[in-house]
């Protein structure tokens, strides 16, 4: 009985953390995709 309670608690915890983890991952991914473009843009504009 204790094992099933622990498994249910872990499942509930992961269900609550998953949207936060997905949002943080998406934020890092979007910023990371834009970073390689910045030096090229600055080099073309500033010489």
Structure commentary:
With 47 residues, the chain is an all-alpha fold. The chain has a domain at 21-47. It has two helices and no strands. It has helices spanning 2-34, 37-46. The radius of gyration is 21 Å and the shape is rod-shaped. The N and C termini lie far apart (69 Å).
Secondary structure: elements and pairs:
Blueprint: H1 2-34, H2 37-46
Mean pLDDT across residues: 88
* N-end to C-end Cα span: 69 Å
What's the number of helices?
2
Q: What can be said about the biggest beta sheet?
A: none
Estimated radius of gyration:
21 Å
Structural class, from secondary structure content? Answer: mainly alpha
Helix content: over 70%
N-to-C SSE string, H for helix and E for strand: HH
Number of strands: 0
Q: Could you tell me the strand content as a percent range? A: under 5%
Quaternary organisation of the protein chains: single chain
- Poorly predicted regions are none
Short précis:
By secondary structure, the chain is mainly α. It contains two helices and no strands. The chain has helices at residues 2-34, 37-46.
Please name the defining characteristics of this protein.
single chain, 47 residues, mainly alpha, 2 helices, 91% helix, rod-shaped
């Amino acid at each position: 009985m204790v094992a099933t309670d622990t498994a249910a608690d872990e499942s509930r915890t992961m269900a609550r953390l998953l949207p936060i983890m997905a949002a943080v991952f998406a934020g890092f991914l979007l910023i990371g995709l834009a970073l390689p473009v910045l030096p090229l843009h600055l080099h073309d504009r500033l010489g």
